[in-house]
Design a protein that fits this description.
The complex is a heterodimer of chains A (531) and B (313). By secondary structure, chain A is of the alpha+beta class. Chain A starts with a helix and ends with a strand. By secondary structure, chain B is mostly helical. In chain B, 77% of the residues lie in helices and 0% in strands. Chain B starts with a helix and ends in a 6-residue tail after the last helix. The chains are: A alpha+beta (531), B mainly alpha (313). Chains A and B meet through helix 7, helix 14 and helix 16 of A and helix 2, helix 3, helix 5, helix 7 and helix 12 of B.
Chain lengths: 531, 313
């Protein structure tokens, strides 16, 4: 009996040890690498054609791919495209897709998918609309090849379909791309390096992506949005943590790996942590816009808008809203310092603050003490700060300013109001735009002179601006393009669609065990591995 | 009693309807436009109007209301304007963290606060009483977010014994659940503990001065039995009332704690929906909150009958 019990004990012990060993093997073997990211905003919509929200654009890059993509020199490179050719007359483009591209549902990516996706994109995006103004026909000629025929040569075909920022021309299955452009697609199926795990999506809290094993990366090393997109982690989780102090604590504790846009006033704490790296990963930065309303006095008069140029001193704004000098730059270029379109032509009024001149110009514009409405989104600290600086500067030259506090949602609906300020309209608001959007004259919606039908809120109305933008778009020679940019910028400093209140570079913070973070205006999570 | 319960439940329908109609109208009259938020900052001119039309937001308010009520009659709360997910799913995702936090907070607060309040009443006028009341005042005075950050700094960043943020369902394990809920529970619980302790003290103190308590003492009953068996039972009606109010408030009002600890609860869902003007979500949440308040009040009223046999409906 004693021996039987002994035997049973030994068997039980062996079984337990085997089970433990098996558990350890399985546990270590199946341990997933997870990259946890704090994004700059909550993902509310998942269709990057339906909305221009940057967070949705970033989501798009996780699950979709593009035909072309910008490299670190801001030149479009083939991405899903294997080869392309342009006819001698410059009017016919032929694109052939790479072999073996698959969507997340297993279906092959075809030329028909590309055609339908570009058509849907062109209905919403400004650069897309401009391109398709020139397109007379676009069709698939076989499973992997499609042609685009233009009515005349256009210099921005590849730049348009390789556009990096909203709305990015992501490629979807044809059945989804045929969805009306003003209706959200019902499924998120792309051919990008990650798949979207809809069942684990908790809007306001968590978004989950897993590596797509069927993705076929290019052989080249990654360069901004182009090159090989190799997913080096199994899973990416976006954890939206609205409170910056909590987000910082989570990063310090190692509960998250990457904090996309920490507030600048917390950067010093992150800098001093030996486990955290703070880096500027967006080489182009962000440009601040002081936007006057061109429909109503006084800013319907260009002299009043020019007065704003003499009023604004970029250092004042940047110190107030960004802080340390290493994160900002004084720059008079409408198309961003550091971009191929950078120029200082015509920027003298902005670079030399002169209150007397500003006062004089306001008087010449006929300003006589009327109340100006300045919309102040108090829930966006950066714009709230800029609003207060502008209000103070305007009062300094005797302008009667009423600062109306509101939240950003209210501002976005009120700025669409074309009525006079006294009837619910407005005179000034502030915003910003990412360098990737601002740097390209055709994509920079702030300078559009398309009047009430086509211009962005504020509605500048200037034919010459539009002619110059068109000329730049059509020009195929780089030197010729730069000449047009200089002419355009000089003109913009006369008509002042908006005032550039400075250029800044938002730092990103991440744990030092991360390798392969890509330098780009858009955060990309392929190529990142955890050490 | 059954008739009373049914009558109370039926009475909630017109109450909820009035609340929802009020909120429906207020949302559409308030400034802000979900179509503008959806379109994003760089939308083309005309996009906002197209989106508004697609979502039916350009219809007259009465038409929108009739459509919504029609769907509601079929149990359909609609879909989020932004995420396109059913409102019931969004609320369902957020219900568990909020209920878990509510429950753990109230258990923590009640288990500690009621004995504290009883002790303070029993030792009224002594240093024990004063200590409990100082604690109660401090509990009201500490801002919830400040307390939350202090606890995070101490237990998560410095001592590294508890996580900073997030929520783990109990289905993922009891230990991870407790680890994640501990700090938010203490943060919120201290405030409610202060409130319940004060009400308990006041209520028990009043009862301790009653004739029947003096009679119980003169009959030679153990003071502990008098306190817990007679005094507390008779003092419990106001305590249960305040607990009920606390539960109702917690279900809807823990947004600060949920933001500090990044808990995906109903409070944050509400604030997010309001900031983005996600009308179907706001309407659905208000409906759920109304039902919750009414249900909690009903449970509190029924509890009175267990505590006080004189109360019958």
């Amino acid at each position: 009996m004693h021996a039987l019990i002994s035997t049973l004990h030994r068997s039980a012990l062996r079984a337990a040890l085997s089970a433990l060993l098996l558990f350890l093997v399985v546990a270590t073997g199946s341990a997933q690498t997870v990259l946890r990211v704090i994004p700059h905003a909550d993902l509310k919509n998942t269709d990057p054609i339906w909305t221009t929200a940057y967070i949705t654009r970033n989501h798009g890059y996780m699950v979709y791919d593009t035909l072309f993509a910008l490299d670190k020199n801001l030149r479009p490179q083939p991405q899903m495209v294997d080869s392309y050719s342009v006819s001698k007359d410059g009017k016919t483009y032929t694109f052939t897709l790479r072999e073996g591209l698959r969507f997340h549902d297993g279906s092959a990516v075809t030329a028909a998918d590309a055609v339908a996706s570009l058509q849907r994109w062109s209905k919403r995006d400004g650069m897309g609309q401009k391109l398709f103004d020139f397109v007379t026909d676009i069709k698939a000629s076989n499973a992997r090849t499609f042609t685009m025929t233009l009515r005349e040569p256009y210099g921005l075909v590849l730049d348009s379909i390789g556009k990096i920022s909203s709305n990015t021309p992501f490629i979807m299955p044809e059945r989804l791309a045929k969805t009306d452009a003003f209706t959200q697609v019902t499924e998120i199926v792309g051919s990008g390096p990650f798949t979207f795990v809809k069942d684990e999506w908790v809007p306001g809290s968590k978004v989950v992506y897993v590596k797509f094993d069927g993705y076929k990366p290019r052989a080249e090393p990654p360069s901004m949005a182009s090159g090989g997109k190799i997913a080096k982690v199994d899973r990416v989780e976006w954890l939206y943590i609205p409170d910056p102090a909590t987000a910082l604590a989570a990063l310090k504790n190692g509960e998250v790996d990457y904090y996309e846009v920490p507030p600048v006033d917390l950067v010093a704490q992150m800098d001093s942590d030996p486990n955290i790296k703070v880096e500027i990963v967006d080489p182009l930065g962000t440009q601040g816009w002081l936007r006057p309303n061109h429909l109503h006095p006084p800013f319907n008069n260009p002299k009043a808008r020019q007065a704003l140029l003499y009023l604004v001193k970029q250092e004042d704004y940047l110190r107030a809203i960004v802080g340390p000098e290493k994160y900002w730059k004084v720059c008079g270029a409408y198309f961003m310092c550091g971009s191929p379109q950078e120029t200082s032509v015509g920027d003298e009024p902005l670079m030399s603050q002169n209150f007397d001149k500003a006062r004089e110009l306001m008087k010449e514009a006929g300003y006589n003490g009327e109340k100006l409405i300045l919309m102040d989104p108090t829930d966006v600290p950066l714009l709230h700060g800029a609003s207060l600086v502008t209000a103070q500067l305007l009062r300094k030259i005797g302008v009667n300013v009423e600062v109306q506090a509101m939240d950003w949602s209210t501002l976005t609906s009120r700025r669409a109001e074309k009525k006079p300020p006294s009837e619910g309209g407005w005179n000034i608001f502030h915003t910003w735009s990412t360098g990737a959007d601002v740097a390209v004259p055709v994509a920079n919606i702030g300078i559009s002179g398309g009047c009430t039908e086509k211009a962005w809120f504020g509605w500048p109305c200037d034919k010459r601006t539009e002619d110059l933008r068109d000329a730049w778009a059509k020009e195929t020679d780089l030197a010729g393009k730069q000449k047009i940019v200089e002419t355009l910028q000089r003109h913009l400093y006369d008509v002042v669609p908006y005032v550039n209140y400075g250029q800044w570079y938002a730092p990103t913070a991440y744990r030092k065990n991360l390798n392969g973070v890509i330098i780009s205006p858009v955060p990309f999570f392929w190529n990142i591995s955890k050490g | 009693m059954q008739t009373y319960i049914i009558r109370r439940i039926l009475a909630t329908i017109p109450v909820m309807l009035v609340v929802v109609l009020f909120v429906f109208s207020l949302l559409r009259l308030a400034p802000g436009d979900p179509a503008a938020v959806i379109a994003g900052d760089y939308a083309q001119p005309g996009d906002i109007e197209r989106i508004r039309h697609q979502l039916g937001l350009d219809e007259p308010i009465i038409t929108q209301l009739v459509i919504w009520l029609g769907r509601l009659a079929h149990g359909d709360l609609g879909v989020s304007i932004f995420s396109n997910l059913p409102v019931t799913k969004l609320i369902g995702q957020r219900m568990e963290p909020t209920l878990a936090l509510t429950l753990t907070t109230m258990v923590f607060a009640v288990v500690l606060a009621v004995p504290m309040g009883v002790l303070a009443a029993w030792r009224a006028g002594t240093w024990v009483d004063r200590l409990v009341m100082v604690f109660a005042v401090a509990g009201f005075s500490f801002p919830v977010f400040w307390l939350g950050f202090l606890l995070i700094y101490t237990f998560s960043v410095q001592m590294e014994v508890l996580p900073v943020q997030g929520y783990k369902s109990i289905s993922e394990g009891l230990v991870p659940f407790l680890q994640h809920i501990a700090l938010p529970t203490v943060t919120l619980g201290l405030v409610y503990m202060a409130l319940i302790a004060r009400i308990t003290r006041a209520s028990v103190l009043e009862v301790l001065n009653e004739d029947y308590i003096r009679t119980a003492h003169s009959k030679g009953l153990n003071p502990r039995d008098v306190l817990w068996g007679h005094a507390l039972k008779n003092a419990s009606v106001p305590i249960v009332t305040i607990i009920g109010v606390g539960v109702a408030l917690l279900i809807g009002g823990v947004v600060v704690t949920e933001s500090v600890f990044a808990i995906p609860g109903l409070g944050r869902l509400t604030v997010d929906a309001i900031l983005h003007r996600d009308y179907p979500v706001i309407q659905g949440i208000i409906l759920i909150f109304s039902a919750a308040y009414v249900l909690v009040n009903l449970v509190v009223d029924l509890t009175y009958t267990l505590l006080d046999p004189r109360i019958r409906y």
